[in-house]
Amino acid sequence: MTEHEPTIFDQIIAGNIPCHRVYEDEHVFAFLDINPLSVGHVLVIPKERAAQLHLLSDDAAAALGRVLPRLCRAVLKTTGSEAYNVLQNNGADAHQAVFHVHFHIIPKLPKGPGLGLQWTTQELEGGEDLAAAITANIEES
Question: What is the three-class DSSP state of 93?
Fold first, then answer.
């Protein structure tokens, strides 16, 4: 388990702070966001204590990966939405506010609220070398 400073999510998992739980198993806890961007906005967190995604164990990451699609289907069915965002931030510079790994499932209702973002792209330069470097680092980790 990768340790980090305690957060509000640790208190929620422990049952010390109430929440509207929608799912729980041995590795994953999911609940409604108390400041939702839209109806049905759900937070999905690992029970393993890790501040950022790259610090999670493979087992905790696999558990999240198994349950996220199921939770997305439930949110879509419940809200009637056909579109949604899954958002996950790592580090203050990437807009992470609570330093415990968490995923947002944010339904986008037709003509309703949801996640708004601007995607500013740039041209890929040195793609072959960059891909090779990333691949080499995958093999080393």
Answer: helix
Q: How far, in Å, CA of 25 to CA of 109, rounded?
A: 28
Catalytic-role residue among 41, 100, 102, 104: 102
pLDDT tens readout for residues 89-139? 999 999 999 999 999 999 998 877 777 777 777 888 888 898 999 888 886
Print burial letters for 51-70: b (CB count within 10 Å at least 16), e (below 16). Answer: bbbeebeeebbebbeebbee
pTM metric for this prediction: 0.88
C-alpha neighbours within 13 Å on the C-beta side of residue 43: 22
Structural domain contains residue 132: no
For residue 26, give the CATH number of its domain: 3.30.428.10
Active-site residue flag, 102: yes
- Count of domains in the chain? 1
Is 140 a domain residue? no
Domain that holds residue 84: 8-116
| Separation of alpha carbons 29 and 51, rounded Å | 15
16 lies in a domain? yes
